[in-house]
Specification:
This protein is of the alpha/beta class. The chain is 47% helix and 17% strand. α1 runs parallel beside α2, α11 runs antiparallel to α12 and α13 runs antiparallel to α15.
Length: 323
């Protein structure tokens, strides 16, 4: 008997693109057993679209309606908690899924029962549904060597440098949410989920573009354009960002020690602690740019910027960025 599948769709004022996404869910070659929708207080007709679609959808649809918005992370958490299937897929309101997405990722999880999750690449489209050159993995410079590292269980170094696992491309085993929920105080859930799943069984990267990921100015999370990642990093305080990274990793280690005692091996624990130390160093940089030079040069010399961020580029950003 094949495993059951839940798609968790989060919506908030998504009317402009939602019809296309719902059509792609209904066209899956392997239909989900249920679609759990959590709406975060939409005011633009999103709920009317959802109600009409649910009335004729080829699967069970559950809609949670919220009067007042709670934010993307809390909205996603609510949807994930209501999922009842073996496998859970996270869905954004403004993308389009390939008809093979559920089938292909579910098959990966069925064929590798020891792993916690699987994720795919995404093609890029613009606000008018036109193609954008490249793919999400290409934009993130997530190449074959790093894909092989994650597939072989050596991916922690990859994810501690930067996240390459987009929530909209992820399928995970429902039982892993017992460890990962509730979410800590975070702005985005993707990195938290990716690290937790990697350490709690592993992840399989599937080098297929099974989502059309939409780049547009209305994105509340994720990319708005091909350059938005660089802009977001350059315009965000390294102190706030790095302190947040350290807090997230501290909480992740605490969860594993509480709910998966002795499951973190010494090597992984040491690597996570080294990333925490590097993040705290970046997070304690002086507001005075000249005073940042020595700690930044020391961190570059030690190799920490290369191991845990984007090398000299991140060092230059820390030197120049606002605090």
């Amino acid at each position: 008997m094949s495993a059951s599948v839940t798609i968790c769709l989060c919506t908030y004022n998504g009317a402009p693109y939602l019809t296309e996404q719902l059509a792609s869910l209904a066209s899956q070659r392997r239909l989900p057993d249920e679609v759990v929708i959590s709406d975060d207080g939409s005011r633009d007709g999103t709920l009317d679209l959802l109600e009409r679609w649910a009335a004729s959808a080829p699967t069970r649809v559950l809609i949670e309606r919220r009067a007042d918005p709670v934010g993307h992370v809390a909205n996603l958490q609510s949807a994930l908690r209501r999922a009842s299937s073996d496998f859970v897929f996270i869905c954004d309101q403004d993308d389009r899924w390939s008809p093979e997405k559920v089938q292909r990722l579910a098959l990966v999880l069925e064929d590798t029962p020891e792993v916690a999750g699987a994720f795919c690449d995404s093609a890029l489209i613009d606000g008018a549904s036109g193609p954008v050159a490249g793919s999400l993995w290409h934009t993130l410079r997530f190449g074959s060597a790093e894909q092989a590292a994650i597939a072989s269980g050596r991916g922690l170094k990859v994810l501690l440098r930067r996240n390459v696992v987009a929530g909209h491309a992820l399928a995970l085993r429902r039982d892993r949410l017992d460890l990962l929920l509730p979410f800590p105080e975070i702005d985005h859930a993707d990195w938290w989920l990716a690290l937790g799943l990697l350490l709690d069984g592993g992840l399989v990267p599937l080098n297929e573009q099974l989502v059309e990921y939409r780049l547009h100015s209305g994105n509340t999370v994720g990319l708005r354009s091909r350059t938005s990642v660089a802009w977001r990093i350059a315009s965000t305080s390294p102190i706030a960002r790095s302190k947040g990274d350290a807090a997230l990793l501290d909480e992740l280690v605490r969860r594993f020690d509480s709910f998966r005692p002795d499951s973190l091996n010494d090597g992984d624990r040491a690597l996570v602690q080294a990333k925490i130390t590097h993040s705290l160093t970046r997070g304690s940089l002086s507001p005075r740019r000249l005073s940042r030079v020595v700690p930044i040069v020391e961190a570059v010399a030690s190799g920490d910027y290369r191991r845990f961020s984007n090398g000299w580029r991140s060092a230059l950003i820390d030197l120049a960025a606002p605090t």
